User: Fold beta-N-acetylhexosaminidase from Kibdelosporangium persicum.
Amino acid sequence: MHVRRFLTVMAVTTATAATFSAPTTAAQAGKSLTSVIPAPAEAWPDARQAFRLNWGTVIFTEAGSREAMAVGRQLADVLRPSTGYPLPVLPALARGHGISLLLGGADARVGQEGYQLAVERDQIVIRANTPAGLYAGTQTLRQLLPAQVESKTRHQGPWVVPGGRIVDYPRFAHRGAMLDVARHFFGVDEVKRYIDQIAQYKINRLHLHLSDDQGWRIEIPGWPRLTSHGGSTEVGGGPGGFYTRSQYLELVAYAKARYITVIPEIDMPGHTNAALASYAELNCNGIAPPLYTGTSVGFSSLCIDKEITYKFVEDVIRELAALTPGEYIHIGGDETHATKPADYVKFMQRVTPIVAKYGKKAAGWHEIAKTQSDPSVLPQYWGTDDVDEEVVAATQRGSKVLLSPAHKSYLDMKYDRSTPLGLTWAGLIEVDTAYGWNPGSFIRNVPESSVLGVEAPLWSETLENSDHIEFMAFPRLPAIAELGWSPWSTHDWASFSRRLALQGDRWVHQGVNFYRSPTIAWTS
Ligand code: TNX
Assistant:
């Protein structure tokens, strides 16, 4: 075993030596320090300072920080299979030819999630105030390496990183993706795969739409039929599924290791057929409806005047709050066409304090804005125009707003008329449309200071597996991610579309089933 390993090492060393003499530079490969998504806030390329990863490269991480070491290990896990290099991860006591991930000493502007990156001939140094910032820096570094680095199999290199300095930090605190696991259920591995994909673009929130008419996807103590019955199907009549408590915790931890906070959503009082089918007593008439596997919306409602409704809601919120470290629980509240307007207000005014009782803030689809004076409640705007008086009023009372305008950010809309998956109710969304709006001035009379951030929702009426998820999310998710992270001064379609083309090369190596939009000059 030892000998074999030694021989492999020799072979790799020889190959490396050969490639070292090749004159390829990162610039010749069409890549520069700014060829990344999201665009960095500030960058100073320096053509004299390219760094080459080699067999001896070490990843040094802040001594004494387990989190920094974990970030270093994740970086090594990406780079090892393709480069074949050992890339040991060691505490940054020693210096040497390496990539250092260090806490402290960064430019003040990097804040809690940003980083600075310096690429020199003999070392790369990423500095941040937090491990989250280090993680963001390593995502940039990945993209600065040739696309083949994303492969699970060995490639030749050379593994050149263009030289220079970056100082980078987010425009908005909340950069989200939503996955609807209710219309079609996605298993733990499928969700992890999506988490890995979105983390590359500095997405820091994953909103899981855990319940809807077609399915209930999370175990709740005391209410076993929610999952055994309510979780037993999905759109089209497939087997559905649900997460056990420990599976949900596993997803939360997996996301957290990638600096993504899970926001669980239980949609109510509408979009509740799966719960109503599971427990007759939740229905005003006491009769459980059948399970639903179609795609209509707006036909179900919890019974607003029954006390059992609020015991149910409290049991659900208590459990979600206990399982979720993040500050928000999303309580839905959209499309409640089967709930009288006065009942909707009554319901939300009773339910939002329950969220606060368990130490969390409530998020809700923007209809919730009409029921609230509590400025901690976060309306999520999903409308298709730029005027909404209720949202404006909420922001004037001090609420922040989360933006996911359906005609721009809905990843489940078709790209064009021939897209085989997806819906069209909010329009056709090519990648330039997804990219072409400014969250800071999108809703009339909502200033940038009232915008918490952006989210790209992926509803799953037509989506059944990871291939489908990827086809709809890529390339549009990176467009929304850039709107959330990069300063508006960097906003430029020509630049974005060139950088997006390079992402396509990475997706090929990652096995991501992306949509080859004809508007992009893909390079592979
Ligand atoms: C509207 S957007 C919905 C969802 C659907 C989606 C399909 C929103 C808050 N509600 O129930 O899945 O359209 O695009």
User: Anything to note?
Assistant: The first helix runs from residue 2 to 21. The first strand starts at residue 42 and ends at 45. The CA atoms of residues 388 and 443 lie 7 Å apart. The chain has two domains: 2-168, 174-488.
